[in-house]
Amino acid sequence: MKHLPTEPYKGVRDFYPEDMAVQQHIFNTWSRTAESFGFERYDASVLEPSEIYKSKGAENEEMVNEQTYTFTDRGDREVTLRPEMTPTVARMIAGKSKELAFPVRWYSIPNLFRYERTQRGRVREHWQLNCDIFGSNDIVADIEIIALAYQTLINFGAQPEMFEIRVNDRREMKEFYESLGISDEEIITKITRLNDRFHKIDRSLYLAELRQITPDSADAILAHLEESSQSENEVTRGLNAVGINNVKIDRSLARGFDYYTGTIFEFFDTDPSNNRSMLGGGRYDNLTGLFTSEAVSGVGFGMGDVTMRDFLDTHGLLPAKKAGAQVIVILTEERFNIDGEKVAMKLRGVGVPTLVDISTKKLGKKVAAADHSGAGYILVVGEDEVSRGEYVLKNLADGTEMSGTLEDLAQGLAV
RNA sequence: GCGACUAUAGUUUAGUGGUAAAACUCAGGUUUGUGGAUCCUGUGUCGAGAGUUCGAUUCUCUCUAGUCGCCCCA
What we know:
Layout: H1 17-36, E1 40-41, E2 47-49, H2 51-54, H3 58-67, E3 70-72, E4 78-81, H4 86-95, E5 104-108, E6 111-113, E7 125-134, H5 139-155, E8 163-169, H6 170-179, H7 185-196, H8 203-213, H9 218-226, H10 234-241, E9 247-249, E10 263-269, E11 277-284, E12 298-304, H11 305-314, E13 327-331, H12 337-349, E14 354-357, H13 363-373, E15 377-381, H14 383-388, E16 391-395, E17 401-404, H15 406-413
Parallel strand pairs: 1-5, 8-9, 13-14, 13-15
Antiparallel strand pairs: 2-4, 3-4, 5-7, 6-7, 7-12, 8-10, 10-11, 11-12, 15-16, 16-17
Helix pairs in contact: 1-5, 5-10, 7-8
The chain binds one RNA strand through helix 3 and helix 13.
Catalytic activity: tRNA(His) + L-histidine + ATP = L-histidyl-tRNA(His) + AMP + diphosphate + H(+)
Domain Aminoacyl-transfer RNA synthetases class-II family profile: 11-319
InterPro entries: aa-tRNA-synth_II, aa-tRNA-synth_II/BPL/LPL, Anticodon-bd, Anticodon-bd_dom_sf, His-tRNA-ligase, HisRS-like_core, HisRS/HisZ
């Protein structure tokens, strides 16, 4: 018989226990940090009506058709597996726009799906921390959201030198282009698209292409762009004031062609082997326009688990392997297995994670396996222990033993 | 959508136009109630199909899968 492949579907991942341990560490750090800033968690289904992704024009329609998982359900509704969280949360905010006490701080860790060509750091399914402040037009909201992203990396154990925050502002850029007499959206889009490649291509090539778009203003745009790392704005000054200094203005920063209307930012890994954007976000006006005439603004960011994992791996910040149980109960013979479960139930009852080794290995192998698993203690159950009602708890790290009734031992281990 | 590279044991890799290796992992034994050791044992249609050849895992072609880039990146 021909068997099915054991590989997961293209572009998605299996989480074996050791992978899941890392995943939990990432999720825990994400939510702990967001909640330390007073953010509240929300979530929604992975299924959304396709139109909430399409309704931003032909460009979006094309994106949805080519880069999402979209299908028609049995009721002839067009459905999409959510590729991003922002339209969903915009829908939810709009639904309650009259009863929410703005500003609100919300976060979520959604599973997102994109039909893409896979490559390093890009898969078809990932998890993303999404943090947003809705309903505040104060620049301090922009500063706080960047500070939250910064603190998240710090809480993973990162040093500020390991990454760099690049900030730009859509409105400032628009004003700058207008000061040069450029107001044509199409031209600005072309310039922005080229700017996005600024760090990837040669300076002379950049200038040559820029001259093709806008011959008269090319030199001024290049100069403006090159001096940006020397300059500052309200956001960078605010970040410096709260002790965040690995930040600079980068006027080449583009962030695609999404809904951002003000501040935009990205965090870059400074390690050359992982030199890529780790997270990004920005400010948008009237996020809720699709759903209601109540205009609600927002500022937020998204940070993926895949890029986070790459970052932690690159900088040696992945956590050490964690044990599945603190105590492993070992039986000398199979006939004691129920006695073993009784012992385990006692320990679990006082909050000690306990498992019973029900394998058929020999005693020595079981001890070795327990040690290998990272458990803290073993407790052997056999003829003597059951008849006497006294047990020996052995600490695997230092070899010390503690003996007594189950009650005594449970007391000693209780958390 | 375009391009490059790769495919050998569970994993990571060596290797050869003439019957395929190592390390690690795992399982069992060495060891009848106590430690990551030692030693022994175990597992492969060399990605699939076709061609060249006396003979192909090795060379050629096609396909498939994966990786990495470009494009795009909400």
